Amino acid sequence: MKVRQIYEYINEFAPFFTACDFDNCGLIVGDMNADVTKIGLCLDASNEMIEKALDNGVNLIITHHPVIFNPTKKIMANTPVYKLIKNDISVISAHTNLDKAVDGVNDTLVKYYELENISSPEILENLGRVGELKEPISVKKYAQVIKKNLNAKAVRFYDAGIKAKKVGFVSGSGGSMMKDALSLGIDTFITGDIKHDQFVEARNIGLNLIEASHFDSEIVVLNSLKQKLNNICTDTEILILETENFVDIV
User: Fold this and answer.
1) pLDDT tier at 205 (50, 70, 90 boundaries)?
2) Is 174:192 a contact under the CB 8 Å cutoff?
């Protein structure tokens, strides 16, 4: 199997052209015509993930976050891009295109957030979803449910004094879309990274706000991605290289 075949298959269910303008998706490092020995999945092609790939004979890494996001002026030894090129490892990154995709990051999170009656409002640019909980629940209890379901190390929240029922969420760093989601009549908004001023804004507008952890809320898509890739990778082993949040809390 060639790298190109994997790329084209991902492009079928998460078209790369749907990625946001600021993004950098597709084959980021490597050779479309290279033979694939094993595939490794992770959120980030860090040095540690590359070492795991080398230890396991992986020569194609598929990441969620682009290994090159901002313009790169230098490629130095002991940096991920240098190591990837040196060791003939290709990297395909599926970021916002996978956020938007059917059965992508946001669709996967529906189960973990225990929501039903799901919609994908145009105002969220298909980067988020809106749904409802079966029964109203306090924000603190809902944050605890999310923490348990994601097996997250920590979940931060602001309680606006109303129960959570109609929920909007955006995977990754979606705090800038909070006001857009509010216009949809939600009482609770969830995303992966929330700055202090966004918590203040939620307080001012009376919106429940939950930070579900960027890592823990996105790592769950790797299982879904592996299942999809198994459809064509019948003779190629797929490994999930990254399973636990490397950031500790005290």
Assistant:
1) very high
2) yes
So what's the pLDDT on residue 21?
94
User: For the residues 46-73, what does the mean pLDDT come to?
Assistant: 95
The pLDDT score that the predictor gives to residue 250 is 85
The pLDDT of residue 155: 96
Q: Which domains does the chain have, with CATH numbers?
A: 3-98+218-240 (3.40.1390.30), 114-211 (3.40.1390.30)
Residue 156: the pLDDT is 97
